[in-house]
Amino acid sequence: MKKVYLLLLFTFYFLLAPHAQTKPSMLPAPANWQFETFPLPPGFAPAIPYKGTEELRFSPDMFKKGTTSYFTYAFAARLDDTKGVSQADIKNYLLTYFKGLCSKTAADRKLSPVDTSAINLSIERKKTGSKEPVYDIVLHAFGVFTDGAPVTLNMEAKVISDVAGQKVYLLFIVSPQPKTDAVWQELYKIQKEFTIGA
Question: Which stretches of 34-182 are DSSP H helices?
Answer without folding.
Answer: 87-108
